[in-house]
């Protein structure tokens, strides 16, 4: 299996690039943010719980997120591999993911980090707010909190995979096509 964690701060372009990667490598895309938003739309119990955290730009608790992710993976019996987008976002999630994947005889192949400077991220999120309709894009305080949460809780996940020699950095600045080409080159060289 080819299991890629696509990593990067809010606004790095993970969602856009995931679409390109699943098309080229025939993988299943699991975006925890998208799954939470679908649950909010469907007014499920999980959605109601997630919304209270997401609207503030905070992380949904690990246990809830991990259990949801596991059940989504298990639904995909014939998958050739996965793009994990927005997960893992804490070291506890990364450890749980390793244990879980080992239990089904697979593992993370690589984490690919889309690297984008903070001022560029702020600009992108401001623009996205005009079209996304996402409550967490609309408020500058919430955007700032998401960036802070990323620095404090999520950035350490990079070290986690670096220690396993699985981290690859990709420059996330440039045209969408250029960035896709960099990602394809990185994956084709694994
Ligand atoms: P972005 O990375 O652009 O902020 P996402 O769609 O990945 O957008 O995430 C939106 C929100 O969903 C996060 O701010 C968080 O509240 C919640 N979320 C997504 N993935 C996770 C996760 N792995 N753990 C906890 N919360 C998450």
Can you tell me about this structure?
The protein is built from ten helices and five strands; from the N terminus they run E-H-E-H-H-H-E-H-E-H-H-H-H-E-H. It is an alpha/beta fold. The protein has a single domain, classed as P-loop containing nucleotide triphosphate hydrolases (Rossmann fold), CATH 3.40.50.300. Strands 2-3-1-4-5 form a five-stranded parallel β-sheet, with helices on both faces. Helix 2 (32-41) crosses helix 3 and helix 4 (62-75) runs parallel beside helix 5. It is globular, with a radius of gyration of 16 Å. The structure holds adenosine-5'-diphosphate. Residues 10-11, 32-33, 36, 53-54, 57-60, 65, 86-87, 89, 93, 136, 146 line the site of adenosine-5'-diphosphate.
Summary keywords:
single chain; 190 residues; alpha/beta; Rossmann fold; five-stranded parallel beta sheet; 5 strands; binds adenosine-5'-diphosphate; P-loop_NTPase; Adenylat_kinase_CS
